[in-house]
Amino acid sequence: MANHKSALKRVRQTKTRTERNRARKTVIKTLRKKTLAAVAAADKPAAGQSLSEFSSAVDKAAKKGLIHKNKAANLKSKAAKALASIA
After folding, report:
1. Which of 17, 38, 44, 53 has the most CB atoms lying inside 10 A of its own CB?
2. For residues 11 and 15, what is the distance between their CA atoms, to the nearest angstrom?
3. Crossing angle (nearest 10°) for helices 5-40 and 69-84
4. 64: helix, strand or coil
5. What's the number of CA atoms in the CB half-sphere (13 Å) around residue 39?
6. What is the three-class DSSP state of 68?
7. Is the pTM of this model over 0.90?
8. How many whole angstroms separate alpha carbon 75 and alpha carbon 85?
9. Measuring CA to CA, which residue among 73, 33, 12 is closest to residue 4?
10. How far lies 63's CA from each of 20, 23, 27, 46, 70, in Å?
């Protein structure tokens, strides 16, 4: 366990950031599942709306460094490709 005052503060900060990051990642995963579920149901308007929300959340996460920018691009690309597959 940390002994210095500054080390104790870092432990507190890390805990807060970990919880925040976990919550943000959970939101991204939920939006992705929602988008893919709408695509599977062939509901193009709902899928388009959820894709927009998903893309926005992914971009914000990449901007903040939560996920890598290339991973963000890959996630968005796969979701958009799934949406385009709806006839």
Report:
1. 38
2. 6
3. 10
4. helix
5. 18
6. coil
7. no
8. 16
9. 12
10. 15, 16, 16, 26, 11
Residue type at position 38: A
Residue keyed to tokens 């901007």:
63
Residue closest to 59 by CA, chosen among 45, 46, 75: 75
Write 63-68 long-range contacts (CB < 8 A, 24+). Answer: 64/24, 66/21, 66/24, 66/25, 67/25, 67/28
Strands (E), the chain: none
Quick one: pLDDT at residue 56? 97
pLDDT value, residue 87: 63
Average pLDDT per block of 10 residues along the chain, 87 residues long: 89 96 97 96 94 97 96 97 89
